[in-house]
Amino acid sequence: MFKVNSKKAVRRIADKSFLANRTRNVIAVAAIMLTSILFTALFTISSGMVENMQKQTMRQAGGDGMGVLKYITDEEYEKVKKHELVEEISYNRILCDSVENEELLKRHGEFYYMDDTAIRLGFCEPTEGHKPEAENEIMMDTKAIQLLGLEQKVGAPVTLELIVHGKAVSREFVLSGWWEADPIFNVSILIASRAYVDAHMDELYKSYGEGNAELTGVINSYIMFRNSWGLEGKLERVITESGFSQDENSDNYVESNVNWSYLSAGMGTDPGAVAGIAAALVLIMLTGYLIIYNIFQISVVKDIRFYGLLKTIGTTGRQVKMIIRRQALLLACIGIPIGLCGGYFIGCGLVPVVMDSMAFEGKAFMTETSANPLIFAGSAVFSLITVVISTAKPGRIAARVSPVEAVRYTEGLNKAARGTKRKKPRFVLFRSKTASMAAANLGRDKRRTVLAVLSMALSLVLFNTVYTFSIGFDMDKFLSKFIQSDFLVAHAVYFNYGYSGIDTSLSEEMIEAIEEQPGFEEGGEIYANIRDAELFTTVPVKGEKEEKFHLNMLEDGTTYCAVYGMENFPLNQLEVIEGEIDIEKLKTGKYILEGMICDDFDEPYWETSHYNIGDKVVLYNYRGTSDVRGENEFTEYEFEIMAKVKVKYYTNSCGMAYNYNYYLPADVYKQMVMRPGIMNYTCNVSPEGMEGMDAFLENYTKNEEQVINYTSRNKRAGEFKGVQNMVLLIGGILSFIIGLIGVLNFINSMLTSIITRRREFAVLQSIGMTTGQLKRMLVMEGMIYAAWAGIAALLLGTALSFVAVKQILSQLWFFTYRFTLLPLIAIIPVLVILGVLIPGVMLKSVEKQSIVERIREN
């Protein structure tokens, strides 16, 4: 047998056939294009949403490092940075215990040396001037420049009042550069040069953790890994494999935590979250596959007669497959780039809208949406693979069918034509012959009908899923991390974690003024004496390593502890972890609540609990007013643990780390100290009184008591409203895109069905079927399609919502799962209307050809 090189002829036939099937090409290209748009737009905008949500919360967290090592030394830093998992590591050296300039009382100032990585991760890159280089150069944000009353120009003189290892020092600097202050980060960062560090190395030693809380000299290093999945596990590996421990009682303990702004950090390797994400990805892929497969299966079957004619002149099955595959690739080469470009421009067009939605005080700040090349490459590859797979089975059908069978092929009838006994129609639901005929048409090729219904249903399920995500953002849960009432008032140093006791206490006069304001509903004080003569101590629980010198441990073997006295209002806001709170029993003075520190995801650190419910606790203090402890009266108190509650970093604690934390009723606490200090005052106000209370506090803290500051639920909500707006906006847009794809897929299926059956319709009309009857049959088909797709979408949407979406949202600390099928219920009538309108429009186009012309079509 002679070997003939027929590739050129096959390519020519494929190309000519491709050009001859313009209608098929338009529909197929549209299907491929929609799939590519689906993937590109969905992943681009979703990644942009995650990126910007993380960026917003990173701003509040103070940087975008994935994990942080706290209070380490140069030697520890050098060991850690060599670990294989560490992609980048910053060097943030604290240069003083505190910045004491009075101008920075309400906006805390922190004095650092930062390397280039630290400056970039901390959003501190100068927009004007340059990074500090000389020993006396310093860089800061614009808010600090404003508060310090400096001239905003390079070379302006700066005087800083610093506390270095407990001693007050004054240092002179010149301004080298600045960057725009972040409106939602209430801390000013001041950055000195490496030359300053070298010149003052003798005072930059670490003493933190050795019986005091002096921060001068310690290093905080922010770590970047290759990706943000499994951050806790990666951070643990870096610490332990570098020769250190995460055990607080270990001699080589290194304190650390992951950045709570990374959404994936809260998921870790939770099986439910992983399964949920996997289910969502499979759903997206299956949706795209069914859209393309459905169109190709119909178009290839329509051309089987043509392929049969080719086989009569000697074309092999392999060559037929090559023809089909080449046409599919040509269609993909047209549809995929258009889809990728469409998805890209949709994403680009949304960037300004997203930035505006996230803007704080009318100005977009540090927001962006990145176009990740991997998204486009992944979308293109998946779409191409889907096209190839989708044409495989129709290609096999055309390749295997004999020339005679191909010419006589009628879709959906060949299998039934082999002597099958005529069955009684199953569709007794429809009394109308037209309706019964429509139902029978859909049942003629069950596989195609099921695929068409599934492709539409899955698009609708994705629509519902994205909508569920977009309404899941819970502002109350988000705000509960930072404030639990409408207003929180305290001395300005409280917000800078410097509250000490009576010297930084609120005045009773101010509290009375607050309670007299219109709209006031309820409020209460939290008392505490931190770092003063009446600070409480306790004996460490037996079994703890007493040789370990805790940060708050004294030489006599006792350890400092934080004891808070609470009025009823804040007491009722405590979140119970274990046990139950009985307010009346608690007020007898025989019981106490143990506070447990929580991580960034509000999960308690169980190792910070030292007791069981019912255990006895003994507290000590030197009750009196003298600064010399030995001159005051020594007092001992015994309590029983009633319950364990959460220590809230921003609301019910002083913001400092204590190994032992306790809560008591205010009346019990005030009997234990001579000068109880009011740490903060929280209150709720009626909705109509919010604006008035805010105005009163704003005026009072500026003009009456300037050392007092406040925050409010509205302030916090305003600061982070952009996050919620972004979630709703992008979620809504994604929902619209996917919902539109579902509708277009439905239109596509209807159009393809009508176009590929023109010859069949002509035959029906030739034997007496009127145009009206034909239209009613097609309308009924469309309504049945819509009904089946709606039912399938409701069932699948409900299942996916509970199985996947609920699992994913449960891992995101500021989302709350809310079950809804509203988008599905709203879009089903749209499908029904389209099912009614499309047949009429398409039949007018079809009837431009005569019945004879359509019958003669191959």
General shape: elongated
Strand content: 15-25%
Q: What ranges have pLDDT less than 50 throughout 5 or more consecutive residues?
A: 360-367, 414-420, 425-430, 543-551
Which structural category fits the helices and strands? alpha+beta
Question: Could you explain how this protein is built, in words?
Answer:
A hairpin with a 2-residue loop joins β8 and β9. This protein is an alpha+beta fold and 858 residues long. The chain folds into 3 domains: 213 residues, no CATH class; 192 residues, no CATH class; 237 residues, no CATH class. Strands 1, 2, 3, 4, 5, 6, 7, 8, 9, 10, 11 and 12 form a 12-stranded mixed beta sheet that branches. Strands 13, 14, 15, 16, 17, 18, 19, 20, 21, 22, 23 and 24 form a 12-stranded mixed beta sheet that branches. About 3% of the residues have low confidence. α1 crosses α10, α8 crosses α11 and α8 runs antiparallel to α23.
Descriptive terms for the model:
alpha+beta; 25 helices; 858 residues; twelve-stranded mixed sheet
Write the layout of secondary structure elements.
Elements: H1 7-20, H2 22-61, E1 67-72, H3 74-80, E2 88-89, E3 92-94, E4 98-99, E5 108-114, H4 116-121, E6 128-129, E7 137-141, H5 142-147, E8 157-164, E9 167-179, E10 187-192, H6 194-199, E11 219-224, H7 231-241, E12 255-258, H8 271-302, H9 304-312, H10 317-357, H11 373-400, H12 403-408, H13 433-444, H14 446-470, H15 475-480, E13 487-491, H16 508-515, E14 520-528, E15 537-538, E16 559-560, E17 562-566, H17 568-571, E18 576-579, H18 583-586, E19 591-597, E20 616-623, E21 633-647, E22 661-665, H19 666-670, E23 678-685, H20 690-704, E24 708-712, H21 713-755, H22 758-766, H23 771-810, H24 822-846, H25 851-855
Parallel strand pairs: 5-10, 7-9, 17-22, 19-21
Antiparallel strand pairs: 1-11, 1-12, 2-11, 3-5, 3-11, 4-8, 6-9, 7-10, 8-9, 13-23, 13-24, 14-17, 14-23, 15-16, 15-20, 18-21, 19-22, 20-21
